[in-house]
Amino acid sequence: MSVLDSKVPKGPLKTKWTDYKDHINLVNPANKRNIDVIVVGTGLAGGSAAATLAELGYNVKTFCYQDSPRRAHSIAAQGGINAAKNYQGDGDSVYRLFYDTIKGGDYRSREANVYRLAEVSANIIDQCVAQGVPFARDYGGLLDNRSFGGVLVSRTFYAKGQTGQQLLLGAYSAMNRQIARGKITPFNRHEMLDVVKVDGKARGIIARDLVTGKLERHSAHAVVIASGGYGNVYFLSTNAMGSNATAAWKIHKKGAFFANPCYTQIHPTCIPRSGDYQSKLTLMSESLRNDGRIWVPKNIEDVKAIREGRKKPTDLSEDERDYYLERRYPAFGNLVPRDVASRAAKERCDAGYGVNATGEAVYLDFASAITRYGKEQAKIHGISNPSDAKIYELGKGIVEAKYGNLFQMYEKIVDENPYETPMMIYPAVHYTMGGIWVDYNLMTTIPGCYAIGEANFSDHGANRLGASALMQGLADGYFVLPYTIGDYLSHEIRTGKIPTDTPEFEEAEKSVKDRIDFFINNKGTHSVDYYHKKLGNIMWNKCGMSRNAEGLKEAAEEIKALREDFYKNVSVPGSADELNSELEKAGRVADFLELGELFAKDALVREESCGGHFREESVEEDGEQKGEAKRNDAEYAFVSAWEYKGEPSEAILHKEQLEFKEIELKQRSYK
Amino acid sequence: MNLTLKIWRQKGPKDKGSMVDYKVSDISEHMSFLEMMDVLNEQLINEGKEPVAFDHDCREGICGSCSMFINGEAHGPDRGVTTCQLHMRMFKDGDVITIEPFRAKAFPVIKDLVVDRSSFDRIQHAGGYISVNTSGNTQDANAIPISKHAADEAMDAATCIGCGACVASCKNASAMLFVGAKVSQYALLPQGRIEAVDRVKNMVAQMDLEGFGNCTNTGACEVECPKGISLENIARMNREYLFANIKD
């Protein structure tokens, strides 16, 4: 039998969670006062978990590297949050949300977890409204919805284009209430640098005060990791500059299995890179694809002319354009899922049809949407024989109302007016579905150590649906972990305060200190960013939107060599006992340099194409789906969970077989 | 383009600090301001010098971390953007750019351009929340109808990113726009009315305790706010505050 026990409760899918909650162990309020919990990360998952655990009566300590919990990168989510409320009466239900999530994840997630997620989703909206989150409303005063991510119902709740911000401020306000009550002690500008295990259980962490550089020991009866995803392993991504995998990687090295590292989501509608100095990429909501048409020139001469500035995209007639998504996927057209749209853009650019100087951009054109809306409006307003100028004016008004803020953002960054000339877009790394392996209780393979939100692997399989990241973060933090952690903590009521003057803490602190001293004393020749960029290049070119065995083997070798060079030649200025952002980055990049290799190894093992993971060797050979991704359910319907054994190349693979009882597995088709 | 940068360097909170001149060359107009700072820092590291410390994170104008006072303006010369969204095309070859931290008594400098804005957090601890448990057993979300107008207005107030540009721009280092925005968001929603009296009193008391100045209606905060938070929020807070005190 596998060493992995998912602990999924018995019984029918629809009543599993309720039955389980009814029989789970509880901790009485008087005992909760004597139990400490550490939460690392204060985004949607960590913030909501910290607030709820404190409210239940546990003593909570939160840690974040930002200067305030409110700045965690959940704040940047634009579009919305899914919930099976069926307020629109369009046939939505818990089952449908469950089904869409499993299918969207290309049948690589755990049924019981996903069903629970769909089940608690409606409560999230109730909770957030009660907290004062200003969701969009219709004129009758009720909540408004939009449709999102190519599903058949309208179940996405939103607050303008800033849904993540508003939900995070909601969780932050719940934290503030508990901070005021003394139940949460926030440690901002702190970074967790190791987990401490005592008798096999997670018992605390070593954290560095990023302002003074002082190392601190913090003990607790349980440690919750809510530190987000590892998209920055690519250097360029839509993640925040500080987003990192260090907390997750540290627990991995101490015994937490890392699941499906190769599952990455690459989002199709981002603003292209403009040069080598680029520090991060900016995403624009995928709602743009509802009205924008994606194309590149048909003739390579036109591509050259455009790049050299001899022609403008608007000079090209309709037959000189290749609307490649509409051509390849007539049924879904520009609305194919994120992974399909991203790969199609790469295919055209790799063939030499990229339209900007870097050769990595395609057009997203709103001209026909403006004309279509303009004609519609002319009809509505009873204007007969409207002039082209009038049609443009009316149509532009509609497009502006729908996407005005995105157009403005684009113009600020690119300095081109997207009403007059097509936008340029290119895919960028956006989200990582893989993460720390957790059981049904969200506990890792280290007893007493939990992982929630993007940091775990549990709910999105090989590909995540739009507007589901926010849902999962809050579901884990508000409604799942607070129950399941009680089951574990009920055995800790007699433990008492955990001392930090023990050999285990001593040793952990010493190894953290040694590593910091190493970086400071290394006095090498290259900056941390030099290595981070090199790593990003390898990842993007060989572990990016499409992967093959040869490239993945090379990637693993190259990353290993880069890591060795890093340890020899990295230079970190300044000292250890002050605010030192280069030192912070060095530690994070060191961890990415290990994670990247495991990523390549995982991608190599998975010889199928599924969701965000596309293996060039695994495509449909013939028929209507020729050339499209080919999944292999017979051999690969499992979760890869990697056990750390020193070098990433020595990691051991454990498989959790996925069982689908409620859903029939189907190949996705968008033709 | 080639630029001269005059940057505030301060080793730590107790250091006196001073402006130091730097030169950067071959700066592309398409770079963001912070990417230009990255170029400078890479240059300093390669010269064996200490890079300039500054706060930044999302680099897309929403986290509120970045906080530079550029040529005498919070977040620089462009309107409606944070420092990370400011682009070098706003400057020209040969320009001299002064870069300072957000200055206020309640925002002490930690290092170089990094300031301590935890006073903002403490004001929120004093009342920036609705006292509702996160148990999930609240009433159905649609049981509280809220007019679209009120919801939109609350949303406008709630877009504040807590960067502190308002404080840095104010000659009195007042935080009234920030506090007014938070008070307004809750005051405009029925869920927030229940605790409205205590909230405004407690938050204002904490704001005063932190050493922020008073508002003298200059309006610089509104002009420099990257999110366009309106002065109306200060007026609303003043009304709420007056009402709360009359009620006592």
UniProtKB/TrEMBL annotation, chain B:
<dbReference type="GO" id="GO:0009055">
    <property type="term" value="F:electron transfer activity"/>
</dbReference>
<dbReference type="Pfam" id="PF13085">
    <property type="entry name" value="Fer2_3"/>
</dbReference>
<protein>
    <submittedName>
        <fullName>Succinate dehydrogenase/fumarate reductase iron-sulfur subunit</fullName>
    </submittedName>
</protein>
<keyword id="KW-0479">Metal-binding</keyword>
<dbReference type="GO" id="GO:0016491">
    <property type="term" value="F:oxidoreductase activity"/>
</dbReference>
<dbReference type="InterPro" id="IPR012675">
    <property type="entry name" value="Beta-grasp_dom_sf"/>
</dbReference>
<dbReference type="Pfam" id="PF13183">
    <property type="entry name" value="Fer4_8"/>
</dbReference>
<keyword id="KW-0560">Oxidoreductase</keyword>
<keyword id="KW-0408">Iron</keyword>
<dbReference type="InterPro" id="IPR025192">
    <property type="entry name" value="Succ_DH/fum_Rdtase_N"/>
</dbReference>
<dbReference type="GO" id="GO:0046872">
    <property type="term" value="F:metal ion binding"/>
</dbReference>
<keyword id="KW-0411">Iron-sulfur</keyword>
<dbReference type="InterPro" id="IPR009051">
    <property type="entry name" value="Helical_ferredxn"/>
</dbReference>
<dbReference type="InterPro" id="IPR050573">
    <property type="entry name" value="SDH/FRD_Iron-Sulfur"/>
</dbReference>
<dbReference type="InterPro" id="IPR006058">
    <property type="entry name" value="2Fe2S_fd_BS"/>
</dbReference>
<dbReference type="GO" id="GO:0051539">
    <property type="term" value="F:4 iron, 4 sulfur cluster binding"/>
</dbReference>
<dbReference type="GO" id="GO:0006099">
    <property type="term" value="P:tricarboxylic acid cycle"/>
</dbReference>
<comment type="similarity">
    <text>Belongs to the succinate dehydrogenase/fumarate reductase iron-sulfur protein family.</text>
</comment>
<feature type="domain" description="4Fe-4S ferredoxin-type">
    <location>
        <begin position="151"/>
        <end position="181"/>
    </location>
</feature>
<dbReference type="InterPro" id="IPR004489">
    <property type="entry name" value="Succ_DH/fum_Rdtase_Fe-S"/>
</dbReference>
<dbReference type="InterPro" id="IPR036010">
    <property type="entry name" value="2Fe-2S_ferredoxin-like_sf"/>
</dbReference>
<dbReference type="GO" id="GO:0051537">
    <property type="term" value="F:2 iron, 2 sulfur cluster binding"/>
</dbReference>
<dbReference type="InterPro" id="IPR017896">
    <property type="entry name" value="4Fe4S_Fe-S-bd"/>
</dbReference>
<keyword id="KW-0004">4Fe-4S</keyword>
<keyword id="KW-0001">2Fe-2S</keyword>
<dbReference type="GO" id="GO:0022904">
    <property type="term" value="P:respiratory electron transport chain"/>
</dbReference>
